[in-house]
Amino acid sequence: MGRRMCCCLTVLILIPLLLLGCGFQEARDQIRSAERSFADLKAAGGEKLTPYEYCSAEAYLGMSKMFFDKAQYKSSLEFVGRSKSASTAGIAEVQKKK
Description:
Number of strands: 0
Shape: rod-shaped
Largest sheet: none
Structural class: mainly alpha
Order of helices and strands: HHHH
Distance between the termini: 73 Å
Mean pLDDT: 88
Helix content: over 70%
Strand content: under 5%
Radius of gyration: 19 Å
């Protein structure tokens, strides 16, 4: 009975840790992607041509990083998605204006 209990406890402890690792990896990859999108917007002149989208993308990216640092990966992913959307919208607007 003691051995079975140890196995069950080990499994119950390992599953959340493995799932936590998956959230970490996905959030980190998405933040890197959003940073590239934001850099593209910045390089395209988004700060002057589309200030709303630029500021939104920057603020959402900052919030995403803050939640990531607190290991709140679900919230981090929500804000990183908003940042990428704002960057994409900003790039589209810059291209329309050029």
